[in-house]
Amino acid sequence: MIFINEGHYPSFHLTNGKLSYIFHVLESTQTLEQLYYGAAIKPRDNYDYLIEREVRPSNNLYQDTHTTSFEHIKQEFPVYGTTDFRYPAIEIAYPDGDHISHLSYVGYTQLSGKHASNLQPMLRAGEEDAATLIIHLKDNYSQAAIDLHYTIYREQAVIVRRVVVHNHGEESLRLKRLLSMSIDFPHDDFELLHLYGAWARETHLERKPLIKGVQNFSSTRGASSHAHNPFLALVAPNTSEHQGEAFGFSLVYSGNFLSQIEVDTYHVTRVSMGINPFQFDWHLDTGESFESPEVVMAYSSKGLNGMSQQFHDIYRQQLLHNETPFEKAPVLLNSWEANYFDFDEEKLLEQAQLAKDLGFDLFVLDDGWFGKRDSDNGSLGNWTTDLDKIPQGIRSLASNIQAMGIHFGLWFEPEMLSVDTPVYQAHPEWIIGHPNKNISHGRNQFVLDFSNPDVVANIFEQMSQILGSAEIDYIKWDMNRYISEPFSNFLKKHQQGELFHRYILGVYDLLDSIRKAFPAVFIETCAGGGGRYDPAMLFYANQNWISDDTDAIERLKIQYGASMVYPISTMGSHVSEIPNHQVGRITSLKMRKDVALFGTFGYELDIMKLSDADREEVRQQINQFNQYQSLLHHGDFYRLNSPFEAGLTAWMVVSKDQSEAIVGVYQSQASANPAYERIQLAGLASDQAYELLELDHESKDIPVRYGDDLMAIGLILNENFTGRADEYWGREKAGEYHSRVFYLKTKKG
Ligand code: GLA
After folding, report:
1. CB of residue 366 inside a 6 A radius of ligand 1
2. Pairing between strand 574-576 and 602-604?
């Protein structure tokens, strides 16, 4: 997978037949020149033909030439201070106060699999799965050594990159900027696609043509954030969901990040990603190293669905924590929207018993079980059971619930502190903020200084007490405010620029300790919904609560956008009460189920209040999810119709062997006398005959359609193939909020 043309100035070609990534060492500067990233091409002896450069007015590195300007050389890992005027990937502050660098090639190392980091999350890679190339660079102006790591996977069109800087010198250096990757594409014929949002409106999709100059999105909030996801894609203007080139970039990081595109005046497009340099200032003392987080780069020539499927596969196989106490993805009942803070032991036991009877696998007690937490006004950081609500304690509650034959899970918000707690009384200096300046609250709470190992140890101790004392199979790990006054009483003056990154390393450290102590506990991460839905959190987790917005119609956009990069098996999705608690909308129980089905599937409503008929429907819905769960969570996901463009949303999942598929179609806007609608399917085997069933409907005849026909012509939604067209959104009964789910299976014989 790694082809190297040896010599003093070698070239490197990473290819797996699905993509090629090529760069070489430039003789005149001893630096790396980026040559190509895209569809797979055959390895060659020489790649000089890929060099595209002309003499142009510029600053030149050497007195005797007019052709060595970094402004005109496509950079593999750009530096500042030497003829490249664009934003660099690395910026070092030297003892003299200057920031002038020149990184020269020294050599390379190859290995099967990859080296793991013990500091931060990264994709796994078995020796059979992947190969790694490490390029060793040295800084001409210090004793810093810079290693660029590239791991190419055998099965997916994916390369992951990261950077490690070592200071071998006598003097300390300051890293002002260290991005995980940078690529110079030779043209700007791209559109930019990214995910933006806000609390309860996460992962909305935006696609815009590139403009000349710098465009970026980032987080300065201490978490990857609701506002922007650490993901972007560059796509050809004619790329659709099903065809065309797409280059996706996803950062395995939960803190402040930067995703940046810079189109220069020669139309070269520089894309780079990594830790946000804003507020970042890292002291690298003698003998120390600094590791960047990883960027996962996925390439597709088969449109956006092709790109997303690369991400889904690699994240399911090489990122997510797979050990769980459940035999299959658990269907959970979460207590939040049912109870909020208002519950007692009796109520919980009643709810859990009914949940067991209806077929749930897991009962999750959300916020409000600890300290004296009857509102969101206190008790965070006091992880002891509120005996007024749960007189027998968590241990007894958990074992009573487990005795019913249903698992038990608990909510924590480990990184936060309220002022009414013993921890705050003993250690007011443990919260982030300057002692002599105003410290803002968010949801009445403060952020614990996780750059301080004592703080992490205290919370680990408190959590282990609870987790070790009772049968708890699930944790919801929440985080409900951002960091606004970054100051640590623990870090030294010169380390304040390290706080944001050290905070995230502390979060990883706690997650890692919990994982080691309780390896099988199922973790659902959350940050006021999708405020930290990123691959780094998923490394420790089994799934993520992706939005506090549980409305089925709004969820179409949130889940559709998130599927650009994240597998649906990670998308916490619940059937909730009507009128919906966020938007007041009323949708049918079926519609809510049909949307949640394409996610982790769970419920968040007071099941005690359901009518007998609704209870029966819930029981059947759970059975239905269990029946299709393996297909839904392990198959290839295709987006078909975008909720951002039309009133009709559609998506589907096809099993890897193409023998079955499940399709969801959702109408969110009715119109009078509507146009005909058909949905072209994708990913089926052209020559296979499929039996077509509509879920939740009795049908006498089972129509049979061929894969080619379903993909070319599509499902004709007005068609009377179930014998019931008039009752849907056909001409007779057009109405809002309808959904239909179809199941396709190859016909035997
Ligand atoms: C956050 C979460 C919710 C719920 C509440 C509890 O908002 O996103 O799902 O757990 O906290 O306070």
Report:
1. yes
2. parallel
Is 2 in a helix, a strand, or coil?
strand
Give the 3-state secondary structure of residue 621.
helix
The pLDDT of residue 734 is: 43
Give me the pLDDT at residue 722, please.
38
Cα–Cα distance, 467 to 347 (Å, whole number): 22
Q: What is the mean pLDDT of residues 244-271?
A: 98
Evaluate whether 555 touches 592 at the Cβ level (below 8 Å).
no
Residue 548 designated active-site: yes
**Quick check: is 478 catalytic?**
yes
Tell the residue nearest (CA) to atom 8 of ligand 1: 528
DSSP states of 677-732: -EE---S--TT-EEEEEETT---SS--EEEHHHHHHT-EETTS-TTS-GGGTTSST
Mutate to test the pocket of ligand 1, among 332, 548, 577 (most ligand atoms within 8 A of CB): 548
DSSP symbols for 436-478 = TS----BTTBEEB-TTSHHHHHHHHHHHHHHHHHS---EEEE-
For the CA of 527, the closest atom of ligand 1 is 8
**d(CA 98, ligand 1 centre) in Å:** 47
C-beta 338 within 6 A of ligand 1: no
- The CA 478 to ligand 1 mean position distance, Å, reads 7
Pick the catalytic residue from 366, 386, 473, 478. Answer: 478
What pLDDT, on a 0 to 100 scale, did the predictor assign at position 460? 98
Q: Which residue has the tokens 């660029």?
A: 148
pLDDT at residue 674 is higher than 80: no
Where does residue 183 rank: exposed (0-12), middle (13-18), buried (19+ CB within 10 A)? buried
State how far the alpha carbon of 531 is from the alpha carbons of 501, 534, 598, in Å. Answer: 17, 9, 21
Is the confidence at residue 720, as pLDDT, over 90? Answer: no
